[in-house]
Amino acid sequence: MSGIFSIPVIVASLGYFVDIYDLILFSIVRVQSLKSIGLEGQELLDKGVFLLNMQMGGMLLGGILWGVLGDKKGRVKILFGSIFIYSIANAANGFVNSIESYAACRFIAGIGLAGELGAGITLVLENLPKASRGYGTMIVASVGVTGAILANFVAKSFDWRIAYFIGGGLGMLLLIMRIGVFESGMYRQIEDSDISKGNFFSLFTQRARFSKYMKSILIGLPIWFSVGILITFSPEFAKALSASGPVNAGEAVMFCYIGLVFGDFISGFLSQYFKSRKKIILLFLVLTCVVTVAYFLQSQPSPASFYMNCAALGFAVGYWAIFITIAAEQFGTNLRATVASTVPNFIRGTVIPITFAFQLTKKHLGILPGAAIVGAVCIVIAFYALYRIEETFSKDLDYIEE
Q1: How would residue 377 be classed by pLDDT, with cut points 50, 70 and 90?
Q2: CA-to-CA separations, 227 to 122, 175, 253, 285, 315, in angstroms, rounded
C-alpha cells in the first residue's frame, strides 16, 4: 500500500489538481470576465462557447504533441514542459481586454494543460504493480478534481484576473516541486532502443488498434457532455427549468466536482474490489442515465436542489479515473503516453462537436429538448463502446506495440 502514496502518485495528483483548477476556472468566471471586457446578453453564451472551444481545441492539439513527446522523450520531461506553458498562459490571461486576446490565452493554456494528466497517469501505471495501479489512478483523480473546488473558492474571494494569476503561480510552484522526479522503469528499458516510439499515426494504420483507440475515447462522452454543457451553462438551464432563484455557474461547478471526487474514489475502489474496469463503468453509465433524466425533469427547482442535482451528476460521471486507466492499459509502453495524453484530451475536445450539436438542436427545439437529445446520443454511444472494449484489470503492461 505504501507504493500507492509514492512520489509519482503525489506528483501526478498535484499536477492534475492544478490542471483542473485552470480547466474549470473559465467556466466559473465566464460571465464575470466577459462582462468585464464589455459583453452582455446573448454574447455571454455565444462567446463563452467560442472561448470554451478555443481552449478545447488547444487541448486537442496539445494532446497529440505531448503524447508523442512523452513516448519519444520520456514521461517526466512532459510533466515539466506542459506545466510551464499553461502557467505562463494562465498568468497572461489575467491581462486580457478583448475576446481575441482571451481566445489566444485559452488556446495556449489548452495546449499546456493537455500534457498533464496523460503523462502523470502513465507514470503512475508504469511504477505501480498491477494489483494496485487502479488505486494509484483513483488517488490522482480524486485529489485532482478538488482543484475545481479551490477554483470556485478563489473566484468568489478575488477578482477574476487575480484568480488567473493564482493559477499561474500554483503551476510555477508545482514546477519547482517536480525537480528530482524519476522516469518510469518500463520506459527506461526502451528509451535508447530502436523501437518505434510515439508514432501517433500508427493508431490509425491497423484496424484492430484503431478500433480499441476509438472505443477508449467514446466511453468518456457522457462525462464531458455533463460538464461541458449541463454544468458550464447551468444558469441558462436553471432559467429554462423555472428555478425559484438565480443559479451561479461557479457553485454548480463546485458541487459537480464535489460529486466527482466521491465518484472517482468510489469507482476506483470498486474496480479494484471487483477486479473489473468494465463492470464499474457500466454501473456508472447506468447511474448517469438516471441522474441526467432527473436533471431534465426538475420542475421549478430551488437553487439548493439544483446544486444537489449537479453534485449527483458529478458523482454519476465520476468514472474519469477508470476511463483514463482502461485506455492506457490497452496499449504497449511505446504508445502508452501517446494514448494516455490524447484520449482524455480528445474526449475533452468532443465538447466542440457537442456544443455545436447543442446550439443546433437548441435553435430548432429549445434548450432543454436540444440538450436532452445530444445527451442521449452521447450515452448510447458510450454504452456501445464499453460493450466492445477489452477488460484490462489484470493485464501485464510491460510489452511493446508492434
Answers
A1: very high
A2: 24, 28, 8, 15, 11
